[in-house]
Design a protein that fits this description.
Layout lengths: L2 H18 L17 E4 L9 E4 L1 E2 L9 E4 L5 E4 L5 E4 L1 E2 L6 E2 L17 E4 L4 E3 L2
Antiparallel strand pairs: 1-2, 3-9, 4-5, 5-6, 7-8, 9-10
């Protein structure tokens, strides 16, 4: 006799919890699932959790730069986007002063230029965390 109220209580609690904490998904496939470039692990019908890998595309506009500055002396400094500095002497003087020619390699850290959003071939937008 005690088992029936306990089972009912358990099922009621389960229904309430599922209503409060719905299943969370990382992607919303509102345009349907893509037809190609998709990998499901484990494949087919599976009991429990499945992982879906979908090929996505996105664009970003990296704008790294090197900034040349001159202090109170004839030394010029090139500061790169990573914070590294390269120094060179001055060519010419006064308002015509320019840094002498010196090679400065830009380092582009692509993690700084991650696209704001990605989308799969079906047009589903996926947010970046």
């Amino acid at each position: 006799m005690r088992k029936i109220p306990a089972i009912i209580s358990f099922l009621l609690a389960l229904v309430i919890m599922l209503g409060i904490f719905p299943m969370l998904a990382d992607a919303n496939f509102s345009n349907g699932y893509p037809d190609k470039d998709i990998e499901v692990t484990p494949s087919g019908l599976a009991k429990g959790k499945q992982t879906i890998k979908v090929k996505v595309t996105g664009t970003a506009t990296p704008r790294p730069k090197t900034v040349w500055t001159q202090g109170d002396y004839d030394i010029w400094q090139a500061t790169r986007n990573e914070g590294d500095r390269v120094e060179t002497q001055t060519f010419s003087s006064g308002d015509n002063a320019l840094p002498m020619e010196k090679a400065v390699k830009d380092k582009i850290n692509t993690t700084n230029y991650v696209p704001a959003s990605l989308q799969d071939e079906a047009g589903n937008r996926l947010s970046i965390r």
